[in-house]
Amino acid sequence: MVSKLVTTMVRFLAAAAICGIAAADAQTVLITGANSGIGLEFTKQYAEKGWTVIATHRRDTTPETLLEVMEQYPKVRAERMDVTSKEQIDALAAKLAGTPIDILLNNAGLFLLGEDWHENAESAGQAFGTFDWEQFDAFVATNIRGPIMVAEAFVEHVKASEQKKIVNISSENARVTGQVYCCGLYWYRMSKGALNKLMRQLAVELKRQDIIVVLFDPGAVRVEKQENFDFPGMIETEVTVRGMIEVAEQLRLIDSGRFIRYDGVDSTL
Q: What's the confidence (pLDDT) of residue 141?
Protein backbone atom coordinates (compact mmCIF):
# COMPACT_ATOMS: atom_id res chain seq x y z
CA MET A 1 0.00 0.00 0.00
CA VAL A 2 2.78 2.39 0.99
CA SER A 3 4.76 1.36 -2.08
CA LYS A 4 1.80 2.13 -4.35
CA LEU A 5 1.30 5.51 -2.67
CA VAL A 6 4.96 6.42 -3.10
CA THR A 7 4.87 5.36 -6.75
CA THR A 8 1.75 7.45 -7.34
CA MET A 9 3.33 10.48 -5.67
CA VAL A 10 6.51 10.12 -7.71
CA ARG A 11 4.51 9.95 -10.93
CA PHE A 12 2.45 12.99 -9.87
CA LEU A 13 5.53 15.05 -9.02
CA ALA A 14 7.23 14.04 -12.26
CA ALA A 15 4.16 15.08 -14.27
CA ALA A 16 3.97 18.35 -12.35
CA ALA A 17 7.62 19.01 -13.04
CA ILE A 18 7.12 18.38 -16.73
CA CYS A 19 4.12 20.71 -16.77
CA GLY A 20 6.12 23.31 -14.90
CA ILE A 21 8.92 23.16 -17.42
CA ALA A 22 6.44 23.41 -20.28
CA ALA A 23 4.79 26.43 -18.67
CA ALA A 24 8.14 28.09 -18.09
CA ASP A 25 9.12 27.50 -21.69
CA ALA A 26 5.80 28.75 -23.06
CA GLN A 27 7.06 32.28 -23.64
CA THR A 28 6.02 34.43 -26.56
CA VAL A 29 7.63 37.46 -28.17
CA LEU A 30 6.10 39.62 -30.89
CA ILE A 31 8.72 41.44 -32.96
CA THR A 32 7.99 44.26 -35.39
CA GLY A 33 10.25 44.69 -38.41
CA ALA A 34 11.41 41.10 -37.95
CA ASN A 35 12.60 40.36 -41.47
CA SER A 36 15.93 42.21 -41.45
CA GLY A 37 18.62 43.78 -39.30
CA ILE A 38 18.18 43.77 -35.54
CA GLY A 39 14.63 42.41 -35.82
CA LEU A 40 15.74 39.36 -37.80
CA GLU A 41 18.52 38.66 -35.32
CA PHE A 42 16.03 38.89 -32.43
CA THR A 43 13.82 36.42 -34.30
CA LYS A 44 16.68 33.95 -34.72
CA GLN A 45 17.97 34.20 -31.17
CA TYR A 46 14.56 33.94 -29.49
CA ALA A 47 13.77 30.98 -31.77
CA GLU A 48 17.00 29.30 -30.69
CA LYS A 49 15.91 29.77 -27.07
CA GLY A 50 12.69 27.88 -27.80
CA TRP A 51 10.32 30.86 -27.61
CA THR A 52 7.20 31.23 -29.68
CA VAL A 53 8.08 34.08 -32.03
CA ILE A 54 5.48 36.17 -33.83
CA ALA A 55 7.63 37.82 -36.48
CA THR A 56 5.87 40.71 -38.18
CA HIS A 57 6.74 42.42 -41.44
CA ARG A 58 5.12 44.85 -43.89
CA ARG A 59 5.70 42.99 -47.15
CA ASP A 60 2.87 41.64 -49.33
CA THR A 61 4.33 38.16 -49.03
CA THR A 62 6.45 36.55 -46.33
CA PRO A 63 10.10 37.62 -46.81
CA GLU A 64 12.59 34.91 -47.69
CA THR A 65 14.62 35.70 -44.57
CA LEU A 66 11.69 34.73 -42.36
CA LEU A 67 10.79 31.67 -44.42
CA GLU A 68 14.29 30.34 -43.79
CA VAL A 69 13.95 30.81 -40.04
CA MET A 70 10.46 29.29 -40.01
CA GLU A 71 11.76 26.24 -41.85
CA GLN A 72 14.27 25.65 -39.08
CA TYR A 73 12.11 26.63 -36.10
CA PRO A 74 8.44 25.54 -36.09
CA LYS A 75 7.55 27.92 -33.24
CA VAL A 76 8.22 30.96 -35.46
CA ARG A 77 5.23 32.38 -37.33
CA ALA A 78 5.23 35.32 -39.72
CA GLU A 79 2.44 37.88 -39.73
CA ARG A 80 1.95 40.92 -41.92
CA MET A 81 1.70 44.16 -39.95
CA ASP A 82 2.82 47.55 -41.20
CA VAL A 83 3.32 49.64 -38.04
CA THR A 84 2.12 52.75 -39.90
CA SER A 85 -1.27 51.12 -40.55
CA LYS A 86 -3.70 51.17 -37.63
CA GLU A 87 -5.98 48.87 -39.62
CA GLN A 88 -3.29 46.20 -39.93
CA ILE A 89 -2.24 46.58 -36.29
CA ASP A 90 -5.80 46.23 -35.02
CA ALA A 91 -6.43 43.28 -37.33
CA LEU A 92 -3.45 41.34 -36.00
CA ALA A 93 -4.33 42.22 -32.39
CA ALA A 94 -7.82 40.83 -33.00
CA LYS A 95 -6.41 37.72 -34.69
CA LEU A 96 -4.19 37.10 -31.67
CA ALA A 97 -6.94 37.75 -29.11
CA GLY A 98 -6.39 35.57 -26.06
CA THR A 99 -2.69 35.04 -26.86
CA PRO A 100 -0.43 36.23 -24.02
CA ILE A 101 2.64 38.11 -25.27
CA ASP A 102 5.49 38.15 -22.75
CA ILE A 103 7.60 40.64 -24.68
CA LEU A 104 6.20 43.12 -27.18
CA LEU A 105 9.29 44.23 -29.06
CA ASN A 106 8.92 47.51 -30.96
CA ASN A 107 11.83 47.22 -33.36
CA ALA A 108 10.52 48.42 -36.75
CA GLY A 109 11.96 51.79 -37.67
CA LEU A 110 13.48 54.03 -40.32
CA PHE A 111 17.11 55.13 -40.32
CA LEU A 112 17.83 56.53 -43.76
CA LEU A 113 15.79 56.83 -46.95
CA GLY A 114 16.86 57.53 -50.50
CA GLU A 115 18.93 55.94 -53.20
CA ASP A 116 22.15 57.83 -52.54
CA TRP A 117 22.47 57.50 -48.79
CA HIS A 118 25.39 55.06 -48.97
CA GLU A 119 27.43 57.74 -50.73
CA ASN A 120 25.97 60.76 -48.97
CA ALA A 121 24.50 59.73 -45.62
CA GLU A 122 24.83 63.25 -44.24
CA SER A 123 22.14 64.51 -46.58
CA ALA A 124 19.63 62.02 -48.00
CA GLY A 125 16.82 64.42 -47.11
CA GLN A 126 17.76 64.69 -43.42
CA ALA A 127 20.27 67.55 -43.41
CA PHE A 128 19.61 71.26 -43.02
CA GLY A 129 19.29 72.74 -46.48
CA THR A 130 18.26 69.43 -48.03
CA PHE A 131 15.25 68.58 -45.84
CA ASP A 132 12.71 66.24 -47.42
CA TRP A 133 9.42 66.94 -45.62
CA GLU A 134 7.72 63.83 -46.94
CA GLN A 135 10.47 61.86 -45.26
CA PHE A 136 9.77 63.77 -42.05
CA ASP A 137 6.19 62.47 -42.12
CA ALA A 138 7.42 58.93 -42.80
CA PHE A 139 9.79 59.02 -39.81
CA VAL A 140 7.05 60.29 -37.49
CA ALA A 141 4.63 57.61 -38.70
CA THR A 142 7.11 54.75 -38.36
CA ASN A 143 9.40 55.65 -35.46
CA ILE A 144 6.98 57.50 -33.16
CA ARG A 145 3.35 56.82 -33.98
CA GLY A 146 3.93 53.16 -34.91
CA PRO A 147 5.31 51.95 -31.56
CA ILE A 148 2.63 53.65 -29.49
CA MET A 149 -0.16 52.32 -31.77
CA VAL A 150 1.29 48.81 -31.42
CA ALA A 151 1.57 49.18 -27.63
CA GLU A 152 -2.02 50.39 -27.35
CA ALA A 153 -3.38 47.59 -29.55
CA PHE A 154 -1.50 44.78 -27.77
CA VAL A 155 -1.49 45.97 -24.16
CA GLU A 156 -4.10 43.39 -23.11
CA HIS A 157 -2.00 40.61 -24.65
CA VAL A 158 1.02 41.81 -22.67
CA LYS A 159 -1.01 42.16 -19.47
CA ALA A 160 -2.16 38.54 -19.80
CA SER A 161 1.42 37.21 -19.96
CA GLU A 162 3.90 36.18 -17.29
CA GLN A 163 6.65 38.69 -18.08
CA LYS A 164 4.56 41.72 -19.08
CA LYS A 165 7.26 43.64 -20.95
CA ILE A 166 7.17 46.23 -23.72
CA VAL A 167 10.66 46.69 -25.16
CA ASN A 168 11.47 49.50 -27.60
CA ILE A 169 14.57 49.73 -29.75
CA SER A 170 15.77 53.32 -29.57
CA SER A 171 19.21 54.68 -30.41
CA GLU A 172 22.21 56.45 -28.95
CA ASN A 173 21.18 59.19 -31.38
CA ALA A 174 18.14 59.82 -29.16
CA ARG A 175 20.29 61.41 -26.46
CA VAL A 176 19.44 65.03 -25.76
CA THR A 177 22.11 65.83 -23.17
CA GLY A 178 24.88 63.80 -24.78
CA GLN A 179 27.24 64.75 -27.57
CA VAL A 180 25.63 66.08 -30.75
CA TYR A 181 27.17 64.61 -33.89
CA CYS A 182 27.32 66.59 -37.09
CA CYS A 183 25.58 66.37 -39.46
CA GLY A 184 22.36 65.06 -40.98
CA LEU A 185 20.05 62.37 -39.59
CA TYR A 186 17.75 65.08 -38.20
CA TRP A 187 14.60 63.05 -38.73
CA TYR A 188 16.06 59.86 -37.30
CA ARG A 189 17.52 61.55 -34.21
CA MET A 190 14.40 63.61 -33.62
CA SER A 191 12.09 60.60 -33.91
CA LYS A 192 14.11 58.41 -31.55
CA GLY A 193 14.27 61.23 -28.99
CA ALA A 194 10.49 61.55 -29.20
CA LEU A 195 10.13 57.78 -28.84
CA ASN A 196 12.12 57.91 -25.60
CA LYS A 197 9.87 60.59 -24.12
CA LEU A 198 6.75 58.79 -25.30
CA MET A 199 7.69 55.44 -23.80
CA ARG A 200 9.00 56.88 -20.54
CA GLN A 201 5.59 58.47 -20.07
CA LEU A 202 3.86 55.20 -20.97
CA ALA A 203 6.05 53.41 -18.42
CA VAL A 204 4.62 55.56 -15.63
CA GLU A 205 1.06 54.80 -16.67
CA LEU A 206 1.43 51.06 -17.26
CA LYS A 207 3.44 50.50 -14.09
CA ARG A 208 0.09 50.52 -12.27
CA GLN A 209 -0.78 47.40 -14.26
CA ASP A 210 2.58 45.72 -13.51
CA ILE A 211 3.73 46.18 -17.11
CA ILE A 212 7.41 46.99 -17.68
CA VAL A 213 8.27 49.48 -20.44
CA VAL A 214 11.92 50.07 -21.37
CA LEU A 215 14.01 51.50 -24.18
CA PHE A 216 17.22 49.96 -25.50
CA ASP A 217 20.26 51.71 -26.92
CA PRO A 218 21.73 48.96 -29.14
CA GLY A 219 24.85 50.95 -30.05
CA ALA A 220 26.16 51.54 -33.56
CA VAL A 221 25.09 48.24 -35.11
CA ARG A 222 26.56 46.79 -38.28
CA VAL A 223 23.20 45.86 -39.84
CA GLU A 224 22.86 45.17 -43.55
CA LYS A 225 22.49 48.82 -44.54
CA GLN A 226 25.58 49.78 -42.54
CA GLU A 227 27.80 46.82 -43.30
CA ASN A 228 30.12 49.03 -45.36
CA PHE A 229 30.37 51.71 -42.67
CA ASP A 230 33.50 51.68 -40.53
CA PHE A 231 32.75 53.95 -37.59
CA PRO A 232 34.75 53.46 -34.39
CA GLY A 233 32.92 51.30 -31.88
CA MET A 234 30.54 49.60 -34.31
CA ILE A 235 29.09 46.38 -32.95
CA GLU A 236 27.97 43.22 -34.69
CA THR A 237 24.23 42.58 -34.76
CA GLU A 238 24.37 39.20 -33.01
CA VAL A 239 26.39 40.70 -30.13
CA THR A 240 24.04 43.58 -29.35
CA VAL A 241 20.93 41.40 -29.69
CA ARG A 242 22.38 38.75 -27.39
CA GLY A 243 23.12 41.46 -24.84
CA MET A 244 19.65 43.00 -25.06
CA ILE A 245 17.98 39.61 -24.63
CA GLU A 246 20.06 38.92 -21.54
CA VAL A 247 19.21 42.31 -20.07
CA ALA A 248 15.52 41.92 -20.93
CA GLU A 249 15.41 38.62 -19.03
CA GLN A 250 16.52 40.41 -15.84
CA LEU A 251 14.10 43.34 -16.07
CA ARG A 252 11.82 43.98 -13.11
CA LEU A 253 9.09 46.53 -12.50
CA ILE A 254 11.56 48.86 -10.82
CA ASP A 255 13.39 49.09 -14.18
CA SER A 256 10.37 50.44 -16.03
CA GLY A 257 11.14 53.68 -17.85
CA ARG A 258 14.87 53.06 -18.15
CA PHE A 259 16.93 53.79 -21.29
CA ILE A 260 19.45 50.94 -21.26
CA ARG A 261 22.47 50.03 -23.35
CA TYR A 262 22.78 46.51 -24.72
CA ASP A 263 25.31 45.77 -21.97
CA GLY A 264 22.92 46.71 -19.16
CA VAL A 265 24.40 50.12 -18.38
CA ASP A 266 22.02 53.12 -18.33
CA SER A 267 22.27 55.19 -21.47
CA THR A 268 22.35 58.98 -21.36
CA LEU A 269 19.04 60.75 -21.89
A: 98
